[in-house]
Specification:
68 residues, 3 helices, mainly alpha
Amino acid sequence: MMKQKNWQEIKSMSDIELNAKLSELEEKYFRLKFRNSTAPLKNPLEIREIRKTIARIKTLLAQQKKGN
């Protein structure tokens, strides 16, 4: 489960910060998936958590775009 503090931090970010965080997480997600396919990760739940965080950020960006 995502820490509440983390979620509040993400919600308070600007569009530019959100886009930067999104690209950073997508890169990390790609690397983790790739590494997991060659050898199992110590914490495979990290992949799921990153995927969900990416979805949350995309949702937040869509809501902000719709609101403006």
